[in-house]
Design a protein that fits this description.
- The structure is a single chain.
- It contains 1 helix and 38 strands.
- By secondary structure, it is mainly beta.
- The protein has 6 domains: 124 residues, Immunoglobulin-like (Sandwich); 101 residues, Immunoglobulin-like; 43 residues, no CATH class; 73 residues, no CATH class; 37 residues, no CATH class; 38 residues, no CATH class.
């Protein structure tokens, strides 16, 4: 008899995804943002979103494992594909998850693919990054700034309710009112209602918030009203007597007296002025003033990013050389111009003055007065460059061929003598080499006695004697 055997064959399908395909990005709480601010322990969702239908393998997490919190996988959406995967991944430079968007016999769909929850546990700043599977290309990132949780004005009130001499059990409605006296007095803030509070063996807990202005250091009393939880308005509350005085915890009592503690900082300042300590624990105005991002030193009306105004030394640079000698340089400005000068340790002697001057008198070595004239040793240069020996210098101008700075090319002496190739010229022009006069065919017009030229026709040196040109030979 023939026998029919049926075999079930399972195929293992292995799909490799390089991680360089697809177009993925990150959203926070469903919003595409570059940054987010969270309170400590405030969770948010982080979504991996794909804008096309390509398969991919990406890495989501933190560089160098600096997470400042916890990142956990919440959900994989159908759009990620029917064989999408999420698993933990970490190495020395990265910690997080690998996310794989993939479909068998199809492809992923655009949209949200993976949903994670991030819970910050430490204050600071961290970047959640999305990389390709090789961690070589960053697709997207979100900078998360984590700040301490905001302090609220609410507080917890715990009490015990006795109903007809027995500890109460069940649900009750409570109404709380705050007063400034044990009896009568004025109500502070609004009523705080706490409906359907579960009372167990008489004990109950309620969260109360009378606002930030209710507790400014004065004594306060709490009045509690109660009614069975199955009643509702207009049924009235039964007020419990007496009112309960609210007392401060030890640290809160310290905070109340903080303004009067022994080492407290006192004082104040004027609007715009950057404060300084005028005494060990007293604040006052400094010489620095800030307005619109501009800082003035000695002025409350700065025109530039930083403006210094002072009748004395505006800016002092201080240095100590290898021999422990003190060196001071001063930048200053007055109505005439800008000055840079060296000065002695006690600021009694000046030397090496460099001055950029607009107008006015000056006894300086170097000066740039307007408009565009440069004076060396001359307070009032008449030419584009004026050099004066008023300071006693022997050499006015010197050009040298090497670092010896000896004027071997050209030198102009204080006496007016000019040397070309001659360091010590003995005449107004002293040349230590051959002089060449370029020959010309005609005599110069309007000659004066002493003029000379080389005649290209006669090949003779011609000198004008005051009435005619004469050949020198």
């Amino acid at each position: 008899m023939a026998r029919l055997e049926i075999f079930t064959v399972w195929f293992a399908v292995t799909v490799c995804v390089s991680g360089v395909y697809g177009a993925q990005l990150l959203t926070v709480n469903g919003q595409a943002v570059d940054s987010a601010t969270l309170y400590l322990d405030q969770p948010c969702t982080v979504e991996v979103v794909s804008s096309d239908s390509s398969s991919y393998s990406d890495c989501l997490g933190f560089d160098y494992c600096l997470s400042l919190g916890e990142l956990s996988h919440l959900e994989t959406k159908p759009e990620a594909g029917n064989i999408a995967q999420v698993y933990s991944y970490s190495d020395a430079n990265f910690c997080g998850c690998r996310v794989i968007g993939m479909a068998l016999f199809g492809s992923p769909s655009p949209g949200v693919h993976f949903v994670f929850e991030y819970v910050p546990r430490r204050v600071g700043q961290v970047e959640i990054k999305l990389y390709d599977g090789m961690l070589t290309t960053q697709y997207d990132s979100v900078t998360v700034t984590i700040i301490p949780a905001a302090m609220t004005t609410s507080f917890t009130y715990q009490g015990r309710l006795i109903d007809y001499n027995d500890a109460a059990d069940g649900f009750y409605d409570f109404q709380f009112r705050l007063y400034d006296a044990a009896t009568d007095g004025n109500q502070v803030g609004d009523d705080v209602n706490a409906p359907d509070v579960d009372v167990v063996d008489g004990y109950f807990t309620a969260q109360l918030d009378f606002g930030g202005d209710a507790f400014l250091g004065e004594d306060r009393w709490l009045e509690v009203g109660v009614r069975p939880g199955d009643l509702s308005d207009p049924n009235i509350y039964t007020s419990l007597s007496p009112r309960q005085q609210l007392t401060a915890a030890p640290m809160a009592a310290m905070a109340r007296e903080a303004a009067y503690c022994e080492n407290a900082v006192s004082g104040g300042g004027s609007t715009g002025y950057i404060p300084r300590f005028v005494d060990s624990a007293v604040l006052g105005d400094s010489a620095m003033y800030e307005s619109g991002g501009k800082v003035g030193i000695g002025t409350d009306n700065p025109y530039g990013t930083v403006q210094i105004h002072s009748p004395d030394y505006q800016l002092v640079l201080h240095a100590t050389d290898a021999a422990a000698n003190e060196k001071n340089w001063i930048f200053g400005a007055d109505e005439y111009g800008l000055t840079l000068s060296g000065v002695s340790d006690d600021f009694s002697a000046w030397s090496g003055i460099f001055h950029i001057e607009r107008d006015g008198p000056s006894a300086v070595r170097t000066i740039f007065p307007c408009p565009g004239k440069f004076g060396i040793g001359e307070a009032y240069p008449d030419a584009m460059l004026t050099v004066s020996a008023s300071g006693g210098a022997d050499d006015l101008l010197m050009l040298s061929s090497d670092d010896n700075r000896d004027g071997d090319l050209l030198i102009v002496k204080n006496s007016g003598n000019v040397g070309i190739g001659m360091k010590t010229p003995a005449r107004k022009l002293h040349v230590s080499d051959v002089i060449r006069l370029e020959p010309r065919a005609t005599a110069p017009a309007n000659p004066a006695e002493g003029d000379m030229y080389m005649d290209s026709g006669t090949h003779k040196l011609m000198v004008y004697d005051g009435s005619d040109w004469r050949a020198c030979w």
